Amino acid sequence: MIDFKERNTTVNTACYVSLLHKLREAIKEKRQGMLSHGVRLLHDNALVHTAAVAKAAVKECGFEEIEHPPYSPDLAPYDYYLFPGCSSSLGTSTGESFS
Fold first, then answer.
1. Distance separating alpha carbons of residues 92 and 95, to the nearest angstrom
2. Phi and psi torsions of 33, nearest 5°
3. Which residues contact residue 28 at a Cβ distance below 8 angstroms, ignoring those fewer than 6 apart?
4. Which residue from 27, 42, 62, 99 has the least number of CB within 10 angstroms?
């Protein structure tokens, strides 16, 4: 499902709840049987995801909410302390930044 918002509109809780209901109907229409297998949503801590109204809508639609772990080593920045040789070759040992 693709949903485009008009320019200069904000995605607030009411908009997100409406989008969840549209998603459920789109899944029901286009992917028959998928709702019975379960739908999982990966949420972060954005205000529209953590609002009580949005959490209630997720349950009402029968979706399961998956939250990001507080820390994931797979997504952690490169650790220069373990590999100091790499730091100097990248030019970051003197505080230089690279892009």
1. 5
2. 90, -15
3. 35
4. 99
